[in-house]
Write a structure and sequence with these properties.
Bound molecules: adenosine-5'-triphosphate, magnesium ion
Helix content: 25-40%
Shape: elongated
Number of helices: 13
Number of strands: 16
């Protein structure tokens, strides 16, 4: 492919003698004019065919306008265009959503493909090192298509043979800057094809009010906020354990409280029990009435409560052994959610070694064996390092809120998460802009999803405690 072409050796000729003309005889091959004309015509025709295939509706409109012009004159075309414009304007005014879905976002995608991506594609690919310019020819990844939704552009590309996902994730920053976006997330569509997600605006930039308490009691995934694409963020707690990591002020409290809020009807129906451990005394104590006797703050009490949870778990395991392999929440056997705020206070910073070992062992037992018998752990912590929480990997689901260091992102979400766009260390430390914002990896996809938890304010918690608070029975 990169065979030396005639005349290439010219660039190698150097003369060190001034005033001496370098004498060389480049091999010149005269291309017959007919060949040149044929090549240009071929390019024109193939370009036209590609355009028709890519934009069939726009192409047929052009053809129809041309035919009408020839048959009936330009005035008829002008009247037709005015009518179409009037229909589009009234459509937009009456039903904005369907207009943007069918027309607005498609036009925007075309405009951005033409003006932003196609125009800058070649220089951006070459400068970022994703394409090559060799002997006068460009070898570039292919810009397949651009689609838009109301917050981001999704650019489908075909990689060059020999490239891999990492080549692109390593250059996500270059691409974001080049195309004027605050970030670029790269995900695999299928072998050889990637989708670059380049946000145009941040739909999570303003705090979300608390999600309404559900009408029905259910233990399934609970809605606790919103994903970047506008869909509800539903977190599954039954049958898993969830670790929430975030620096101080990152908004861990809003996740804990949103979960509690969404489970309240199930708690009232007796299908869920909330057991709260609040070693910092600053978070869950505010809604203490919701937990009744299943609340502990002093490390000794926390250890006792955890031991009780382990005892319930083991009793269930003995009962289920050989009878069933999974848990269905019932009034007799409710789903027990053990909520621990700042788990490191109990596992790492606890000065009493005996207590520390006891608590760590209980948490490890719950997280390894609790899933199948209906005991789940939801734990929050500030520092996700292994020295601080050795049982980090026992939590199948993890949420990364604002973190202090970039290395911590992969510690929480797994290898390569930051490369794939989980920029948890770049979340704004200003509470209104960044508290409750984080990244999760949903079960269905390895790509991190940006989310924001709804903010359950003090008044909401007070209202929850007065409406739903009832002292739980002694355990
Ligand atoms: N989801 C949210 N949306 C908007 N603002 C929020 C949200 N969550 C928290 N905040 C704001 O951020 C502040 C800190 O939140 P929070 O106490 O939950 O942080 P934290 O991660 O628990 O911190 P710490 O580790 O110090 O306890 C709150 O007082 C509130 O003003
Ligand atoms: Mg907190």
């Amino acid at each position: 492919m990169f065979r030396k072409l005639p005349g290439d050796q010219v660039s190698g000729l150097v003369s060190t003698t001034p005033d001496t003309a370098v004498v060389f005889k480049p091999a010149v091959v005269n291309t017959p004019a007919v060949l040149t004309v044929f090549v240009l015509a071929w390019r024109l025709v193939s370009g036209l065919v590609k355009t028709v295939i890519r934009h069939p509706i726009a192409a047929s409109l052009f053809v129809a306008a041309g035919v009408v012009w020839v048959l009936y004159g330009w005035a008829v075309v002008a009247i037709g265009l005015i009518n179409i414009m009037a229909v589009l304007i009234s459509w937009r005014m009456t039903d904005r959503d369907s207009f943007s879905r069918w027309v607005g976002l498609r036009l925007l995608a075309f405009a951005r493909w033409f003006w932003i991506y196609r125009r800058h594609w070649q220089p951006v690919m070459i400068v970022s090192g994703l394409g090559r310019h060799l002997r006068g020819r460009d070898y570039l990844p292919r810009l397949v298509k651009v689609t838009c939704d109301d917050w981001a552009d999704h650019v489908t590309i075909k990689m060059m043979g020999g490239q891999c996902l990492k080549d692109w994730t390593d250059r996500a920053d270059h691409l974001a800057h080049a195309f004027g976006s605050p970030a670029c997330r790269v995900s695999t569509l299928r072998a050889g094809r990637l989708v670059l997600t380049l946000p145009r605006r941040d739909p999570l930039s303003t705090p979300l009010p608390a999600v309404a308490v559900p009408q029905e009691a259910h233990v399934g995934p609970v809605e606790i906020g919103r994903c970047e694409d506008g869909s509800p963020w539903r977190l599954n707690l039954h049958g898993t354990h969830v670790l929430v990591a975030g620096a101080t002020g990152a908004g861990k409290g809003s996740i804990l409280w949103s979960v509690i809020r969404s489970l309240l009807p199930a708690v009232r129906a007796g299908l869920v029990e909330l057991w709260a451990l609040d070693p910092k005394l600053m978070e869950l104590s505010y809604g203490k009435a919701l937990f009744g006797n299943r609340y502990a703050a002093h490390p000794h009490d926390c250890a006792d409560l955890l031991d009780k949870a382990v005892a319930v778990m083991q009793e269930r395991a003995a009962r289920y052994a050989g009878v069933r392999r999974s848990h269905v929440p019932t009034v007799d056997d409710p789903f027990i959610l053990v909520i621990v705020d700042e788990v490191a206070f109990l596992t790492a910073y606890q000065p009493d070694k005996h207590l520390r070992v006891r608590i760590s062992a209980a948490l490890a037992t719950l997280t390894t064996q609790g899933r199948a018998v209906g005991v789940g752990v939801l734990a929050a912590l500030q520092d996700p390092r292994k020295e601080v929480i050795s049982i980090r990997n026992l939590f199948p689901d993890k949420i990364a809120l604002r973190l202090d260091e970039s290395e911590q992102v992969d510690m929480v979400l797994g290898d390569g998460a930051r490369d794939r766009g989980a920029l948890a260390d770049e979340i704004s430390p200003i509470p209104a802009a960044g508290a409750g914002v984080g990244y999760v990896r949903l079960e269905t996809s390895p790509d991190p999803v940006r989310v924001r938890a709804a903010y359950v304010c003090d008044d909401d918690i007070r209202a929850m405690a007065s409406d739903h608070g009832s002292p739980g029975e002694a355990v």
